[in-house]
Each structure stands twice: as C-alpha cells, then as structure tokens.
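Course assignment 3, question 2. Fill in each field.
Student: A.L.
Task: Predict the tertiary structure for the chain below.
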Amino acid sequence: MSDPLLRMIALARPRGARFALGVLAGAVATASAVALLAVAAWLIATAAAQPPLTALSVAVVATRALGVTRGVARYLERLITHDAALRTLADVRVRVYERLAATEPVRRFRSGDLVTRLVGDTDATQDLLVRGLTPPAAALVTGAGVVALSTAVLVPGGVLLATGLLLGGLAVPLLAAAAGRGPGRRAAASRAELSTALVDAVHGAPDLQAFGAMDAAVARVEAADAALTRVARRDATLLGLGAGASALVAGLTLWGTLLLGVAAVDDLGTVGLAVLVLTALAAFEVVAPLPVVAARLGALRAAGARLFDVLDTPPAVMRRSAAPVLPASPGLRIRDLRVRYGPDEPWVLDGLDLDLPPGRRVAVVGPSGVGKSTLASVLFRFRDPDGGTVHLDGVDVTTQDADDVRAAIGGVPADPHVFDSTVRENLRLARPGATDGELAAVLDRVRLTGALAPAGGLDAETGPHGDRLSGGMRTRLALARALLADPRVLVLDEPTAHLDPETRDAVLADVLDATRGRTVVLITHDPAGLDELDEVVPLVAGGRTSRFAGPS
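Answer field:
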C-alpha cells in the first residue's frame, strides 16, 4: 500500500466499526432530507385537491418525523465520525512523536518544516476521515435508494437521475481531483517553506540583525507567503469551478426530469410529477460535497506523503538480537568501532579500540572532524555503529533498550538541550526527587551558583532553548544535570566549551574532583588541564587512535 491516502485511511482501521456507524447515520440524515422533500411534494400536491384532513395526517406526521430524524441523524453522524477521527488523530500524533523520539537526532527536517509536519500534515488525517471518507460512502448508500425511488415512479426519470448523480458525484469529482493534484502538492510545499522561513527568521533574529541579514530573511518570508497565496487562489478557483460544474449538472438533470415528467404526466398524475421533480432536486444534496472533497485530495495526498516521510524514517537506534556476554569484561570495552553517515560517505570512525575499566578516566582529544562527537553519539545511543562493538560489562549495548543504556551511560552531549522552564525543573529531569539542597550543591560543583543568583538561583527562568543563559551557563547546567543523574559511565563532550580560560580550568578541576572513582570519558579538543586523567587518547583523521599517552 503505497498511496498516502490509502495509508491514511488504513490508520482508522481500529475504529472501522465507528466510522461505519457514522456513515450509516450520514446516509440516514441525507435520505431523510430527500424523503422529507418527496413527502412534502406529495403532501402539497395532494392537498391542492382538498381531500379529507385524515388522508393527509400520515404525511403530516411523516414530515415532522423526517425533519426530526434528519437533525438527529446529522448530529449523530458528526458526533460519531468526529470522535473516531479525533481518536485516530491522537493515535497518529503519538506514533509521530514516538518515531521522532526513536530517530535521534532529527536532523533531516528543518525545525519549521517539522512543525508543519507535526501539525498541519498530521491534521490532514482528520480532514480525510471526516470529509473524504464519510460523505462519499453515505452518498453511495443514499444515491442508490433515491435512484430506486425515482425509477419506481418513472423509469426514464430514474435513469436520467442515475446519470446525473454519476456525473455530479463521480465524473466532476474525478476531474476536480485530477486538477487539484498539482496545486495540492504545491500548497503543501509552500506551507512548509513559509513555516520554515518564519521560524528561522524568528529564532535567528538576533544573529540576523547582528549580521545585517534581517531584510533578506523577511524578504524570504514574504516570498514564501506570496507563493502560498497564489496557490490558495488557484485552489479557490478550482473549488469554485467544481461547485459550479456540480450545480450545472444538477440543473440540467432537474430540467431533464421535469421534461420527462411533463411528457408522462398522464400516467404519473400531478402528484407523481411533483414527487419525481422534487426528489430529483433533493437528490443532489447527496453528491454536493463531493467535488470540494475531491479537489482537496491533492493537498491531502501531499500532506500524507510528508506525514509518512516522518513515520517511515528508519530509527537511528535499533535493538538487535541478544549477543553472548563476554566473560570477565567489567567496564566499557570498544572494539573496531566504525561509523559513517552514508553508504558513500567516508568513515568518520574506522577501527577505534578503547578500554575503560570501572573507575578509569580517559580523555579523547583531537581536532574537529576526527570523530570525537560521533563517538559520544554512539555511547549515548543516539546512533548505532556501522561496524564493531560497544560492550558494557560484557553486554553488547545494541542488544539493550536505548533508555536502559542511557541510564548507565550518560553525560553531556555537544549541544545539550535546555528546556523552557526554571533551573530547578531542568535539574530535576535527572533526579525528580532531588531536594533543593542537593540541587544547590551540584550547582556549586560546576560554579554556577554565583552566575544564577541575580536571576533567582534555582527559580531562574532559562527561556526557550535556554536563551536566557549564556553558552557557558547552558553547558554547566547540563553538566550539573549529568552529575546529578550519576550514571555508571560519564561521557562529557566538550563540557568546558564557551568558557573563558580561567572558568574553564576551574570547572574542569571541579569536574575531575567530583568524578573521582567513576568511569569518565572526557571528549575535548583542548589538551590543557588533563594531567589528572588516567589516560589521554588522541584521535586522528578517520577516527583511529594514533597513540596512547598519559600518566595511567
């Protein structure tokens, strides 16, 4: 099943019974509307002959009953289908978030584009199920009944009505769907481009302003908005043409039915003529929504393709089948580790070996581009190695749940995330039950207490992405969080980045003092201040160790 529309409909399979009930309610509502007009036509035409009131009582009651039934059935249809669609949408959102959580890091999507995929493209599932699934199914059920009724009254009239309904409910929607495929695809792309440009301009405003590039960023937003507006106008034109074509078919069918009825009035009688014509008039309520729905299918298909582009993204971390436990291998052991970022890309790490017995502290040093942060990503289980093994106490980490591995191997990544909350809540992510005294103590270890005091200490607001903190403060906050989590293996990827030399040396000394007796991998490009470590492992191009040095 490769068509995004079919895949989106398949997402509703667990609630198929509810949607079927909603279709039935919709068919009842539409049929009641048609029957209401047919009964009203019979009632008016019969009443013109002034029969006894008792002859009209059944029709009067039926008219009232059909009016009530129409309203109740329409309400039930909306209630049932929207409930099922919203529950399905909730399930889809959970699947999207779970997939994104299992695809670390999510670098293939721009932030603004990702927002569009999470909101607009995901919401397209609800639109398809509510507007693209129920109306056609209800139209099929009701249309067959209406054609049968008209055929019973006058066979040629039933045939003409069937032809008109097929044109208005099938031919016109198919043409609208074909015409809307291109605009729908362009609308999805334009909406994503506008969202990306807007998010980039807002989040990057300080840097854009500093480098004099704000005007260019605003021009990009305006251009994206203009492109989306042009597509929206074409879409509105298409919707108008579809509605007009449907109305034209309905009008021609009604006129044809009237002419056929007049020609056969001797057999039909005035009552039969009124019922036939007004039934044909009401019948097109069945297919009236379909051209609009069909014109939207192109946009819904494009949104579905973008949604499944996220859902089909292979996880960066897979749990492999269990491997045998290595005997007598406590601590962390890396053998022939190989990593690259694409089948045709060069090896970033190529044959790296590293042993870290419990309590050993090792620094991995080297210039940018030799694979230091890639090594950290493998240890954090942000990505799987393409070759080689990483064992913790003899167990291959790729055979374990990623969260379990991260509980044992934690630390500070190169770009730690700070949540838009207080310093206290950011720290409690590592240990929810920590007291304020414990939080204050870990802030002292990373020399962050004094810097945070003017802003409120533990109550200091960090801002979106930690924007209210300097780069050095964000790094030290992440370091404090890692120390608070107290993993068995502490991996620190450039923990003193963005710090001035004096603060860097002081923080590094505090970190080394706080990590005595535990296993530490310190990843840095700066070899200064590493004398207290047990070993220094320099990396060269290709991610190989060139030598081992250090006091050991």
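Instructor remarks: The chain has two domains: 91-311, 332-545. Confidence is low (pLDDT under 50) at residues 546-552.
Grade: pending
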